[in-house]
Amino acid sequence: MKKLAFFAGILSATTSVFALTLTVAPKANAVSLNAVDTVVIIDESGSMAGEQSWIQQVIPALESAFQAAGFGSGTDANRYGLVGFGGGGSGNLGRTLTANGNQLFGAADFSTAASNLVTSGGFEDGYSAIDYTFNNYNFRSEAVKNFILVTDEDRDNGNNALTSQNILNRLQNSGTLLNAVVDATFRDRNGTRALGIDSKGSAYLADGSGGFTKSAGGTAISGFGTTIPDYVDVALATNGAAWDLNQLRQGGNLAQSFTTGFIDIKVQEVVNTGGPTEEVPEPLTILGTLTAGAFGTQFMRKRKQMQAVRSDA
Question: For residue 79, how many C-alpha atoms fall within 13 Å in the half-sphere facing its CB?
Fold first, then answer.
């Protein structure tokens, strides 16, 4: 059921720290939403070790970008949660990973929660995991609600009562943004392969040097199984974005462009959702010097461990 994908290191830079500079136009008006509640909902099957390591690097950088945009200051801290799914046993439809006993926590504690992720599963139902998150988490009314779904499979149906329409209704009715990092291919109107696309039809293209450019006519042209109707269409309908994790898996400048674009567009979505009556001018620029160093070493160690398990099987 699960394809095993052993791929090269996701990033190939030489440092282990995200250095981010965010330039955001001041908000024109006071807003009522001034913090972000973000839950990462991530596949725990055998091919996901790289993405699990990647998201641990992304969250602290995303937090810095949110704060630079005016979210999460003072007593209104941004909060993060982590839900794993597909890990086998009773948790294969969704399970909470806590940090220091807390279900929602600061960005600095995200890696503590993520240290309990597994890569042993083979049945992945992202709808059940989204449903689980709604049923088990309490979000603040004054915070932007934000789900990040990361999986390289389409949906394995673990609950016939869940459909794309009722999952979308629940996301929309609660005002929750969904970003989908999935096995899908995107192109712009010129046929150029894109890192991802957003709900306005914009496509984000790698620029060859770790950054990205914006193009028009972004569309999903293919995906693993039913990934596009399962996840891409739903994410776009919430005013979120969808991203091609195979671009991330290429490593090097392409992975750097992917991560820079992902963070940049994620912050833009939250700024727009957070209540400015005047849209923040484009572009919202993040200049990222992205990682591998320690991350690359960690990823390669996980890859070797997975290969060893596979050869012993």
Answer: 19
Q: How far apart are CA 186 and CA 242, in angstroms?
A: 9
pTM reported for the whole predicted model = 0.82
CA atoms within 13 A on the CB side of 59: 29
Among candidate residues 106, 28, 1, 50, the one with its CA nearest the CA of residue 259 = 50
Q: Which two tokens stand for residue 229?
A: 């109707």
Residue 228: DSSP 8-state: I
Mean pLDDT to the nearest integer, 27-31: 37
Short-list 97, 83, 78, 90, CA closest to 36 = 78
Q: Which helix (H) or strand (E) holds 302?
A: helix 293-312
Summarised one tens digit per residue, pLDDT across range 60-108 is 999 999 999 999 977 789 999 999 999 876 668 999 999 999 999 999 9
pLDDT digits (tens, 9 = 90+) for 111-142: 999 999 999 888 999 999 999 999 999 999 88
Q: What is the CA radius of gyration of the chain?
A: 18
Q: Tokens 């042209």 — which residue? A: 221
Do 44 and 96 contact (CB within 8 A), yes or no?
Answer: no
Alpha helices, DSSP H, located in 179-251: 227, 233-237, 245-248
d(CA 307, CA 313): 10
Per-residue pLDDT at 291: 45
- List, for residues 268-308, the tens digit of each pLDDT value: 999 998 643 333 434 444 444 444 433 343 444 444 454 44
The two beta strands, 219-223 and 35-43, are unpaired
Which of 272, 286, 127 lies closest to 200, judged by CA? Answer: 272
